[in-house]
Amino acid sequence: MGKKIKKEVEPPPKDVFDPLTIESKKAATVVLMLNSPEEEILAKACEAIYKFALKGEENKATLLQLGAVEPLTKLLTHEDKTVRRNATMIFGILTSNNDVKKLLRELDVMNSVIAQLSPEEEVVIHEFASLCLANMSIEYTGKLQIFQHGALEPLLRLLSSPDPDVKKNSIECIYNLVQDFQCRTTFQELNAIPPVLDLLKSEYPIIQLLALKTLGVITNDKKSQAMLRDSQGLDHLIKILETKELNDLHAEALSVVANCLEDMESMLLIQQTGGLRKFLAFAENSTIPDIQKNAARAIAKAAYDPESRKLFHEQEVEKCLVTLLGSESDGTKVAASQAISAMCENTGSKEFFSTQGIPQLVHLLKSDSEEVREAAALALANLTTSNPANANAAAEADAIEPLISTLSSKRDGAVANAATVLTNMAMQEPLRGAMQSHDVLQALIGPLGSANAVVQSKAALAVAATACDAEARAELRNRGGLEPLVELLHSKNDEVRRYSSQAVMVCAGDEPTAAELCRLGALDILEEINLSVSRKNKFSEAAYNKLLNNNLSLKYSQTGYLSSSNLIGDGFYDYGRINPGTKLLPLKELCLQGPSDQRAVLLINNKSVDVSLPMEDKSSDLSYGRSISSSSSLRGASREKTISRFSTGFGSPTELKSDPTSGRNTVLSKSATKEKGLRCTQIVTSLN
Predict the structure, then answer these.
(1) DSSP assignment letter at 509
(2) What are the tens digits of pLDDT across the range 486-533?
(3) Which residues, in sequence order, are bridge partners of residue 667?
(4) Where are the extended beta strands (E) located within 271-353?
(5) Cβ contacts of residue 200 below 8 Å, gap of 6+?
(6) Cβ(163)–Cβ(131) under 8 Å?
(7) HEC string for 31-44
(8) What letter would DSSP give residue 488?
(9) For residue 567, how far is the Cα from the chain centroid?
């Protein structure tokens, strides 16, 4: 046998780096490793960073400060699957930090993240990529980027994933996306309701809840309501409501039902299958405030449709709503009151609430919650409109005092609604008297000065309804209520201008109030309004004429005639014709003017009128006077011939003379014609 020859060991190549195991306790060192060209180092570095980020928000902020985000974004598209997976996992965790989300939006990495949702990728990548998108979709800008890069379709596909975390992240992101109208439109185009409905069968409550929330948003649209109906979604919802073990989902399921009840076909389908009766019984018997509130909201939304109101009435929805008024939850009380307001359009419902419902609503007017008081007042306003029986029922329930108290509410809606109820009640004289005894006009003065146009108009209408007698008008006048009323005539709002004109028309029913309105400038404002084709209304014209009828001197000067119903009283004077917009001076100012060559001013005084002239002025002015007698009124014939006849104190006839200055016919006795050369500013004539 030959001798063994020992084989020599070849030395390692000089150009190869010996393997090196590195242990680092510094995150900064690991972040530097993200730039390595070696896949194994990249994978291990990402794994270490993932574990570090999981420990808390401070670590996420540290990684951001160390500049880890930008090199990690490049690893999302790395060829090595492990590196790509680990980088995706990091972003799923990091994107809960707002600053990281902001930087990612600037780096525009949505395409890279969405690419990880492809069917070829493994489930763990789907989980963390969808988590990243769910976190990014919370803010509007991130939501917009996700949608614009086409993430909705792959997210919908992931709803059928076998992994519950993938489903949860995907539906959460979709829920955030569909808050935007444009995304909801795309959602419909993709026929996305069936896969969302399938999530209601999930064994995980959070997935079911997110699915219901998503359906609650998209079914605000008519097309989606029809799609849900065609997909048998209503059956799923009713089954959830019938299952006591799913009571944590009932509130959200009711929100979806509420939307579907707005669709008449869905409403009919629910009614035909017995679901509507189950729904009402469920709402009435539930003890959970959110469920009661959502049920009442569902009824309120659906009741705006006449056919739906009819179906609800047939199912005796009124009993359910009256029960809900007694809830301990303010939110439920508000929703039930709003539902009653909507149901008031149905005559049968209105009659039902006359005996049941109105007392409970009146009680709610005393609530500490302003929102509850507003909703109750709205329901009462709708119940009492054009319904004297309900107005009486409200009065019998002692509604007057709390309604007047509500006029001082901080909520404009509550004030406007209370004013409407008071207006409806004031249509009946006994109720009007009761309201006046509670100082309703004084309480309305504040709302007249509101900055809200609706409050202004409702308050003015309430004044028109309650200031129907001299005593009430005197109270309004003495309390300073005429000033804000006149101010409303300047409003640019048509309704405010119309109702304030109506109130002025009513208040001008007696001379003292009419005189005060004129002093405050109401006549001038109304005259200006009536000159405008777009601003005038029937009440502004009627108010103007009413004020003129209480100021016959002005009426005669402006129009040139008086009607047979205009009875001249003490202090009537004929200044002569004045042009529109010209102000008629008061008698006292006219008497203080010196003699001139203008036409005479004729004063009629059955007894005596103290024109408050200085003694020296009285003697000189009265020297021009002539005592004549007259009939008790001027009868209007035409603008050319306005005074038909006068008699002198001595029984001699008078003559009609044309005033060359004004073109008007004036009345002079025969003896006065001899003094044609004597002209003065005032001729005071007395009938003794």
Answers:
(1) T
(2) 999 999 999 999 999 999 999 998 889 998 998 899 988 998 999 888
(3) 656
(4) none
(5) 208, 211, 212, 236, 240
(6) no
(7) HHHHHCCCHHHHHH
(8) G
(9) 49
What is the spatial distance between Cα 662 and Cα 639, in angstroms, rounded to a whole number?
A: 12
Separation in Å, CA 552 to CA 518, 539, 685: 12, 20, 17
Lowest mean pLDDT across 246-260, 264-278, 600-614: 600-614
Distance (Å, whole) CA 504 – CA 526: 10
**Mean predicted confidence (pLDDT) in 129-138:** 95
Please give the pLDDT value at position 349: 92
Closest to 380 measured CA to CA, from 360, 358, 351, 364 = 358
What's the one-letter identity of residue 17? F
Residue pair 116/130 in contact (Cβ under 8 Å)? The answer is: no
**Amino acid, single-letter form, for residue 524:** D
Residue pair 241/275 in contact (Cβ under 8 Å)? The answer is no
What are the structural domain ranges in the chain? 568-688
Give pLDDT, residue 607: 59
- At 258, the amino acid letter reads A
Contacts of 501 (CB under 8 A, 6+ apart): 489, 526, 529, 537, 539, 540, 542, 543
Q: How far apart are CA 130 and CA 114, in angstroms?
A: 8
Q: For residue 345, which amino acid is it? A: E
Distance of alpha carbon 648 from alpha carbon 517, whole angstroms: 36
DSSP character at residue 645: -
User: By three-state DSSP, how is residue 574 classified?
Assistant: strand
**pLDDT bucket at 584, cuts 50 / 70 / 90:** confident
* Encoded tokens for 359: 């007392």
User: In Å, how far are 320, 334, 381, 467, 481 from 338, measured between CA atoms?
Assistant: 13, 6, 11, 31, 32
Residue 118 pLDDT greater than 80, yes or no: yes
Query: What gap in Å lies between CA 128 and CA 457, rounded to an integer?
Result: 58
User: Taking the model in full, what pTM does it have?
Assistant: 0.70
Q: Is the pLDDT of residue 667 over 50?
A: no
Phi then psi for 252, rounded to 5 degrees? -70, -35
Please give the share of the chain, as a percent, with pLDDT higher than 90.
50
pLDDT of residue 511: 85
* Alpha carbon separation from 663 to 44, 174, 562 (Å, rounded): 110, 84, 18
The dihedrals phi and psi of 628, each to the nearest 5 degrees, come to -135, 160
CB distance 294 to 251 below 8 Å = yes
Amino acid at 686: S
Phi, psi of 684 (to 5 degrees): -95, 120
